[in-house]
Amino acid sequence: MKNAFLRKTIGMVVVAATITTLAPLGVSAQWKQSTDNTWSYAEGNKNVKGWKKINDNWYYFDSTGKMKTGWLKDCGNWYYNDNSGSMKTGWVKDNGTWYYNDNSGAMKTGWINDNNTWYYMDKSGAMQTGVVKTGGKIYSLDKSGAMQTGKIKIGNKDCTFATNGEVTGNNIPNCDRDFDKTDNTITSDQPQNDQNSNGTSNTTTNNQESVSNSGTTTNSGTITTPNSDTTINSSTTIPNSGTATINSGTTPNSGTTTNTTQDINSTNGDTVSVSGLNKLPQTYAISIQSSAENKILELLNQKRVEAGLKPLTMDNTLLQVARYKSDCMIQYKYFDHTNPDGTKWFDWLKTIGYTYNATAENIAYNTYDPVELFNQWWNSPGHKANMMNASYNKIGIGVIYDKTNNKYMGTQTFSN
């Protein structure tokens, strides 16, 4: 508990130190302070807009070029920029409540693992303490938020919690809060923090649906449960205007071996289907970009061979699942690893009986060139890490053209 508290405290100390970055950096690129005391950053004669990395720190500038501080929302993810404007990762304390932002700066909800200790964050991202019920299972979190195991006295009950944190035995403690599978509060004995209430004066919304150019960038980080087989690996992807990319990796502990099923999927003309998965609607006309898929694989394998890695082979099952994912995002109008029904790609693989030792997913879109999806992934550290991961030997690349909305949607699904 003490170590966890110290880690958080140290993380907050760094905030003040970054204020020194607000100094002129030269003629061609420099900070400017307006009469209203807001900061902007100019390159040449133009103010920067969106995310910008300056001296190894990330900053966000709104549509007018003003640097934002506090909580801001971009591409569906929440980020926290301190008083110097520098984006924060790791533990962040705001108005007495702890939050956790992954390596990309995106605020996490649900279960997270920090230094081999589990914490639970509600839908607003607020760290929980006490006895909580989530997914129908009861856990105990100490005052530092750390999940407890072993024998714990709660009230007048001697309770036992298994190594995965779940209560066992006959002594069941009363729950302080109850959450559903999407981390929303079902019942509560005390008010819950609302993310929208934190830093509202500094909040900027930039939803990907409102972007008229090639799109937006986001990423998925740690979204795990203590009793789950899967761990979603965080990336270092930072939102960046002009691209639409998102990545996530998972390392199951099941110990299963790869069993590629070649005849489980089918593709028929301009429709995509996977046997065992729900039939997708056909609201938007699509076109499968098989030549772009092959070209992206060629470009990717060139990079891997140059780096001394073995090339990836196109796996038919992963190919169809990747196409299914791209079409699913088109038909249901979303852009996320989490599907509208709460499932993810590895749930689909499990449903169709595809086994693996590790798997990952990259997704992206643009409105001008299907092969350019490769460069979007390649120029993003987190996505590039998936593509250059030596442990993967199979890939599925699904590129679908949305004829109605003039959009190329791409998915890469990796496994070994």
UniProtKB/TrEMBL annotation:
The keyword Signal applies. Residues 165-269 are annotated as: Disordered. SUPFAM superfamilies: Cell wall binding repeat, PR-1-like. Gene3D superfamilies: 2.10.270.20, CAP (3.40.33.10), Cholin Binding (2.10.270.10). Keywords: Repeat, Signal. Pfam families: CAP, Choline_bind_1, Choline_bind_3. Residues 297-412 form the SCP domain. Cell wall-binding repeats lie at residues 48-67, 68-87, 88-107, 108-127. Residues 1-23 form the signal peptide. It comes from the Bacteria. Residues 192-268 have a biased composition (Low complexity). This is Putative cell wall binding repeat-containing protein. It comes from Clostridium uliginosum.
